[in-house]
């Protein structure tokens, strides 16, 4: 397939042509009114995960939302407005950030700057990989990260996070039932809600769990009431609480390997958007990886989470058949404005712990379950011992948080699973191993 069929290659950005019905391609645009409505829809789609991820790591959600908008604009400019994507908080960082900072799971992370330094390190490694892709193409990534390995690493991340989710709903019986009720709301919305609402199970689950907790805790006294003092006092407009990174070798060594996951995520998303639009976007993959790496570095330098292209927004595009890149520029501007609203941030921070725990059970489980989708869609052959052993070892290393120490350096379960899967697969599929077979 041609890389850019239908695009005006004479200018850096497309000359977006007005089209108000049918399939809207990246270089086309809706009317400005439709653009605003559709852009807000993308804001809603990304908001659940982009807000929940920083809460799980003890980051400021205002700052995370702000930098998701900044990162999306960076991406928009570097890919010349030709690849429709939104960049939101990456869940791949959660386990390693918690491990690197010893975060207890409630309130601001006291070692936030340490985590930010590690995320900068991941962004730098990610950027180096993107430069190699620009120079040599994408083939080596597909050989280094075949579906068997990618799925194993994704599953290991989800399983590594399982104890965090369970702990968040285990303080008492009320918290447990609130968390499970939140899980149920998410499931019902995902399965039975009409139209667009079905695509917003996380945010609707958070809203439903919030009001359920409010009813039984504040209203009936079954749990600790939600304190609205900070929400009432917070101004509508104000500067976010920016935080600078500090650099510690252990944290960088633990967090930086997440770059491998971000590469795999971005590769999959670019392939998915290319398939939906009917044109190969492989020629923009190097730029997309570099844009994501730069956005991650910029976010971490100000207190935001690492970012990645969002499957949630790809789902909205699949449902609407509107791929105009202008929607994402508008959505990014809205996110930046929300980042400058302390009132919005205080509302997010008032979400009760057990509700966050219920969201975590679903989200972390979905991360692990995504591995099954990767294996099924790519027809991974588990009768092949190389695939089977690679996956088996990675799952146990991640779930059991197998830690390796090299002098002053420590690699946690995610890093062990990631590097272990990559190295083990290459060994088991080497020509010598194949000849022995």
TrEMBL record:
Ranges that cross the membrane: 63-80, 86-105, 112-138, 144-165, 177-196, 202-221, 242-264, 284-310, 322-340, 346-370, 406-428
Cellular location(s): Cell membrane
Signal peptide: none
Entry annotated with the keyword Transmembrane helix: yes
InterPro entries, alphabetized: NCS2, Xan_ur_permease
Record's bilayer topology term: Multi-pass membrane protein
Keywords, in A-Z order: Cell membrane, Membrane, Transmembrane, Transmembrane helix, Transport
One Pfam family cited in the UniProt record for this chain: Xan_ur_permease
NCBIfam families from the UniProt entry: ncs2 (TIGR00801)
Family per record: Belongs to the nucleobase:cation symporter-2 (NCS2) (TC 2.A.40) family.
Protein name: Pyrimidine permease RutG
Annotated organism of origin: Bradyrhizobium yuanmingense
């Amino acid at each position: 397939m041609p890389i850019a069929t239908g695009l005006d290659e004479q200018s850096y950005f497309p000359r977006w042509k007005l089209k108000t019905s049918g399939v809207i391609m990246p270089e086309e645009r809706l009317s400005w009114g439709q653009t605003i409505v559709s852009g807000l829809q993308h804001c809603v789609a990304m908001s659940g995960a982009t807000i929940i991820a920083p809460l799980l790591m003890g980051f400021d959600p205002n700052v995370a939302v702000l930098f998701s908008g900044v990162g999306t604009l960076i991406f928009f400019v570097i890919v010349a407005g030709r690849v429709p994507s939104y960049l939101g908080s990456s869940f791949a960082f959660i386990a390693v950030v918690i491990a690197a900072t010893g975060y207890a799971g409630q309130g601001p992370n006291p070692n936030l700057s340490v985590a930010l330094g590690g995320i900068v390190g991941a962004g730098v490694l990610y950027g180096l990989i993107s430069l190699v892709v620009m120079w040599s193409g994408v083939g080596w990534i597909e050989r280094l990260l075949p579906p068997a390995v990618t799925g194993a690493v994704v599953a290991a991340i989800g399983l590594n996070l399982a104890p965090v989710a369970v702990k968040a709903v285990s303080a008492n019986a009320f918290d447990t039932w609130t968390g499970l009720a939140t899980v149920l709301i998410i499931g019902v919305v995902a399965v039975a809600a009409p139209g667009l609402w079905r695509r917003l199970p996380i945010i609707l689950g958070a809203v439903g769990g919030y009001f359920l907790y409010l009813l039984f805790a504040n209203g009936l006294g079954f749990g600790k009431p939600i304190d609205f003092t900070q929400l009432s006092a917070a101004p509508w407009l104000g500067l976010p609480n920016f935080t600078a990174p500090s650099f510690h070798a252990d944290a960088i060594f633990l967090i930086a390997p997440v770059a491998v996951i971000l590469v795999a995520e971005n590769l999959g998303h670019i392939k998915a958007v290319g398939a939906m639009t009917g044109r190969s976007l492989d020629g923009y993959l190097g730029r997309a990886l570099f844009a994501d790496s730069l956005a991650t570095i910029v976010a971490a330098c100000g207190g935001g989470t690492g970012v990645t292209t969002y499957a949630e927004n790809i789902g909205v595009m699949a449902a609407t058949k509107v791929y105009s890149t202008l929607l994402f520029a508008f959505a990014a501007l809205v996110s930046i404005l929300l980042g400058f609203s302390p009132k919005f941030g205080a509302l997010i921070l008032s979400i009760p712990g057990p509700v966050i725990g219920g969201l975590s059970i679903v989200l972390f489980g979905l991360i692990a379950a995504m591995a099954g989708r990767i294996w099924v869609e790519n027809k991974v052959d588990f009768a092949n011992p190389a695939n089977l052993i690679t996956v088996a070892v990675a799952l146990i290393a991640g779930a059991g948080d197998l830690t390796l120490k090299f002098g002053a350096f420590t690699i946690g379960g995610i890093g062990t699973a990631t590097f272990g899967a990559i190295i083990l697969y290459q060994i088991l599929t080497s020509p010598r191993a194949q000849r022995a077979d």
